[in-house]
Amino acid sequence: MTTTPHVQPASDALRHAEVGGSRAPSNAPAARGSGTVIVGLQWGDEGKGKIVDLLADRHQAVVRYNGGANAGHSVVIKGERYALHLIPSGVLRPNIACIIGNGVVVDPDWLSRELDGLHARGVDTSGLLISDRAHVVMPWHKAEDELRERWLSEGALEPIGTTKRGIGPCYADKALRGTAIRMGDLLRPDVLSARLASICRLKTAMLGAITGPDQGMTSYDPAAINELCQSWGRRFGPYITDTAALLRARLSAGQSVLFEGANATLLDVDHGTYPYVTSSNCASHGAATGSGVPVTSIAGILGVMKGYSTRVGGGPMPTELIGNDADRAIGEGIRARGREYGTTTGRPRRVGWLDLAAVRYTASLNGVQGLCVMLLDVLAGVERLRVCTGYVLEGRHIDELPPDAYLLSRCTPVYTELAGFGDITQARSMSDLPSAARAYLDFIERTVGVPVAYVSVGPDREQTIAAISGGAGAGSSGIGGVAPKAAR
Ligand code: GDP
Ligand code: IMO
Ligand code: MG
Fold first, then answer.
1. Domain 135-239 in this protein, CATH class
2. Ligand 2 atom nearest to CA at 262
3. Total-model pTM
């Protein structure tokens, strides 16, 4: 029989984390409650959705702060699989406010389908709220995304390998301002209708210029787009509000909030493997701007990583398992066992050895206080496990991930080899794990310099090990009540 693991609310467990050498203030007037950020430490699909679902019931609100329908977060509860794209993964827990923050770009058609799918399965979505400041992904954003990718691949440039969900063009319009449409605009049809004639004219001309004269033009009819916007306004009107004010009020009232990162740090537009990144600040820094709360309200940061690496789309991946037939066979085994196919696009994910040089960089960048090591079970049966701890770049050893894709593509990984282990899917405590699996986790902790807070040994909510003992107020040593190794 399996039982739901006892998990500390992350904000509690991490509330007393040392910040800048002093205790984080728990009574700052702007934010008496506390926030915990769940952030991906690799190239996405680390299992953020599972961790958010796991911790959501100890929080009063969950907010998505970045990205759009490019994200795909899977949650498995008693064998039932749910795939979430725009709606926060907290939606599967009752009585929680689920907020789509201002940093998200919302495709209303996707959101409609997602809501309908959840309703058909009996999920209560009455806690959903959408920021009036969140930007709307319009039909021309998706068309432009597709066209730009094609244009790059036809030229001398490598395409980004986007999800074609219109993410980049929508964030570009957000920065450009004049042609952007926000969710709040859908509630003012008269004002919007007056702007749409100009916006449609410009978008028709722009897309025509990328397509070229012989390819057939997409023409945007303002009346049809206006009708579409009005239908979105009618459907989402009840959900659209000033979610930033609401979140600050909740924090001031002492509530705790979970910030759900989408995409992941190596895809962060500023700090990732540029230009093969997405267009938002996926790293923990994006949580405050992407939801409209003070930075001081964030008390805990949990970093989610898998026991190996995956990447979807273009860009360098030094540890990718493609070097020879033996490597490819290991990669294919991991892909099959880990169901490594995109939740959003179905594309096979590229698979590689765990890159701890990359994780050390992202953990340090984000200020991560606890690691969630996911999909560890997927490594079962691989006899010798390789872990990258640094690179050789132009004959020099480096420990840090280089700042851009050009340099990273020239890096050769430096590996340490560790012993493999067998099936661990039934483990429910650290002591249930074989010694080789514990040694693998110890190696991760030591190399990254951050304690392991959770270990995941299967997709189901119940297949989770809380590596934390002690917790809030327990006065335990170690970071934020995360017990040191010896206590496990
Ligand atoms: P996210 O985008 O970070 O939320 O991750 P995804 O949901 O896109 O991808 C993670 C995949 O791994 C999903 O199919 C999860 O159901 C699954 N998963 C999560 N944790 C585990 C685990 O510990 N073991 C296995 N085998 N699968 C897991
Ligand atoms: P979650 O939240 C994996 C990748 C795309 C592409 C690049 C840019 O499920 O972890 P975009 O459509 O955003 O312009 O694509 O970013 N990408 C993801 N890869 N998981 C994700 O989200 C991703 N979101 C974007 O594959 O390489
Ligand atoms: Mg995903």
1. mainly alpha
2. 2
3. 0.91
